[in-house]
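Supplementary Text 2. Reproducibility record for the structural model of the 281-residue chain.

All settings were left at their defaults, and a single model was retained for analysis rather than an ensemble. We include the record here because the model underlies the residue-level annotations in Supplementary Table 4.
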Amino acid sequence: METTDQIKDMVRQKYSEIALQDKATNESSCCGSGCCSTETYNIMSDDYSTLDGYNPDADLGLGCGLPTQFAKIKKGDVVIDLGSGAGNDAFIARAETGETGKVIGIDFTPAMIDKARANAEKIGFHNVEFRQGDIEKMPVTANVADVIVSNCVLNLVPNKYGVFQEIYRVLKPGGHFSISDVVLEGTLPKNLQEAAEMYAGCVSGAIQKQAYLELIDVTGFVNVTIQKEKPIVIPDDILSQYLSAEQIAAFKQSDTGIFSITVYAEKPKEANTCCGPDCCS
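Retained model, structure tokens:
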């Protein structure tokens, strides 16, 4: 995990493995529902099953929020889902935007793209497409999206500011995003920061909450709002893989907090139409 490329390769490998499993298999090891937990991927996932458009085959239990629930998607909107995985959020968005809209899912893991496309074919959605690509350099032209959603993905990306610049570029003036992500308050113990499993599990790649919000501000977005916030508790059996009993006790007594937040922001209606306030001459 010393370089950006190494981090990306590690994340791609981990999520390629997860793509080949179903949700039940993931939960039997990750136990997002609260039983014994030996992995970290879905200790923070929310329940999608009551939302319109939900498809169990597309739900791998990898999110940390319900961004589509807060995304204010309207009929006919063009929606982009960043880190679309097996298609879960994209299909929920499709239920909101309807047949007259369009949903584009972007993911850089080939196995996830294959799974999402197969799910879309089974459902018969012809206005949902999945493109393989890096969300730091989206395979999408500028000013095309009304709404962008993402669920527990930006914390996996080394260059988070680059992603926000891309979101700004791709949104139409007046468009908006709703993104669920993991952020920190305080400092994680060194062993957690350096653990590849904790990075792929969306924890050690997270940055400070205030720094995260500042990245959104400096990119040029307005009306930044936290729509939902909840604490994330890492089970002791996960912590014990990286920390001693004394270190776990110290971690729990510290001021460090791990949170899932869902953040909303808008691209100004009179926005610079290239790629953000500081990247064009």
